[in-house]
Design brief:
The structure is a single chain. This protein is 11% helix and 34% strand. It has 479 residues and is mainly beta. Strand 31 and strand 32 (464-470) form a beta hairpin. The termini are far apart. The chain binds zinc ion. Zinc ion (ZN) is lined by residues 99, 102, 109, 168.
Length: 479
């Protein structure tokens, strides 16, 4: 190991002083180079296992990371909950059953106390997401946790068995900032390499929002945004000049061109000699919509469970997602229902929603290219005729539950919670199969009056998923 140990240990000691923790005269290093996570005497964080248990060891960089996250979290949420640190590594990096990992000194299980917000049943997952984002900002390269909101919101978060009630985090030691740094980060929407699509601009192609965030305490005096093309010899395209409001977004007054690369940065005056900020972030524009053409079913066809198919075209850019809009009149002033959006490049979708016999429906597909530009097909119509020809995959699939013949109509409902767990069985003791967003359409397969409804929904890939949801979070639709 060629880590510069002495400076890191000095960094840790300084951190501990700032955190109000008992600063050890000298952190005791294990032969492996790990140190023990100290106790925080003012409760900035708590430890699950006591000092000396041999469960709270990590590299000095990792300990610094945990202290910085705990401090920043407490600064934002002074009344708690506070970070509760569970198993890290053993001092010698040896096997740590039942964990398969927790040997590298860069890993910990994270809870909060007294309430544990790192739990999929905790109702305010926005708070949970904020904590996961904070770990990422300070250098986490992996977070295992089973709530979709966090998985969607943090690029390094992923689902993993048995991670319903804590974060399992692993850091990249090279991404952990030095102690004392005020951290200014571009938001993902404006980070180096981002592609800017038309929906983010006004009709005049201005108004791109540049956004950043500040970690740590700052006495912001002013900020200044610089925006340029890639040419160095002609001055910057736009300089906001010093602005005094305490804001972390800036709406760019410059009109952008399609297919061009720009760069931007922000400088914060926080009273020091040098402004604080980050290096140039390059942004590329893609302002053209894809082409989309509906192919089948042919207009006015009488079909049972129609498979809607379309053609997507955009050179070099794949379809990123699609949604189906379904209407029951020709005006489309207020569209009756939307299915999706579904991620991916599929160019067909089998309708499995309950439809009325003999009724005419209008549909179109709205596609979004991987860069975020959107286009809609023309509206087309079909008539629902149960048992009618056109043996579509959907009509014979086990998931199909559209009413046929004399069978009672399937009940449908929509999710009326921001995020609803679909479980493998009826009750919270069953595993979460997936989470459904507000407004998701579900087909009720069994008794619509049970406390736990057996339902089928379209998964994020457009394939049907089945499971159980608490009835109070579903609004049944009467047909
Ligand atoms: Zn773990």
């Amino acid at each position: 190991m060629s880590l510069p140990r002495v400076p890191l240990l000095v960094g840790v000691a300084a951190t501990l002083l700032l955190a109000g923790a008992a600063a050890p005269a000298r952190a005791q290093e294990s032969p492996r180079g790990y140190i023990e996570m100290p106790v925080s005497e003012d409760g900035t964080w708590v430890l699950t296992s006591p000092t000396g248990s041999g469960r709270n060891w990590g590299t000095p960089t990792f300990v610094r990371h945990l202290v910085m996250v705990a401090r920043e979290w407490r600064r934002r949420h002074p009344n708690g909950p506070f970070l509760r640190i569970g198993d890290m590594s053993k001092p010698d990096g040896s096997d740590f059953p039942p964990h398969k990992t927790h040997k590298d000194g860069l890993t910990a299980d994270i809870f909060t106390s007294p309430r544990n917000i790192c739990h999929v049943d905790y109702p305010d997952q926005d708070l949970t997401l904020e904590l996961a984002q904070l770990f990422h900002d300070y250098g986490a390269r992996q977070i295992l946790y089973n709530h979709q909101k966090v998985i969607d919101g943090v690029s390094v978060a992923q689902r993993w068995p048995k991670h319903d009630d804590h974060f399992h985090i692993v850091i990249d030691p090279n991404r952990v900032p030095a102690e004392g740094d005020l951290l200014v980060l571009p938001e993902a929407s404006a980070r180096d390499g981002a592609v800017i699509a038309a929906p983010r601009l006004s009709a005049e192609r201005t108004g791109l929002q540049l956004a950043w965030r500040i970690l740590g305490q700052s006495r912001l005096k002013s900020y200044r945004v610089l925006f340029d093309d890639l040419r160095d010899d002609d001055g910057v395209l736009h300089d906001s000049g010093p602005l005094r409001a305490a804001r972390t977004t800036y709406d760019l007054p410059v009109a952008l061109e399609h297919g061009k690369t720009y760069r931007w940065r922000v400088e914060l005056d926080v009273g020091g000699e040098q402004p604080v900020g980050f290096g140039w972030q390059r942004l590329t524009t893609d302002l053209t919509p894809p082409a989309v053409e509906a192919l089948s079913p042919r207009d006015d066809a009488g079909v049972d469970a129609p498979t809607l198919a379309w053609r997507y075209q955009k050179a070099g850019v794949a379809q990123g997602s699609f949604r189906i809009e379904l209407d029951n009149d020709a005006n489309h002033r207020r569209i009756a229902g939307t299915l999706g959006p579904f991620q991916g490049a599929a160019t067909s979708y089998t309708l499995r929603v309950p439809l009325k016999r003999g009724k005419r429906y209008w549909w179109r597909v709205v596609v979004t290219c991987a860069n975020g530009n959107e286009a809609a097909s023309e509206w087309h119509t079909f008539k629902h005729e149960p048992g009618a020809g056109e043996a579509t995959p959907g009509a014979s699939a086990p998931g199909a539950s559209a009413p046929r013949g004399g069978a009672p109509a399937a009940r449908a409902g929509t999710v009326n919670a921001d995020s609803l767990n679909l479980r493998a069985g009826a009750g919270t003791d069953h595993d979460v199969v997936t989470t459904l967003r507000r407004g998701t359409l579900v087909r009720v397969l069994g008794d619509p009056t049970a406390d736990w409804l057996h339902v089928e929904a379209d998964g994020r890939d457009g394939q049907p998923v089945r499971g159980y949801v608490a009835r109070r979070f579903v609004e049944l639709v009467d047909d």
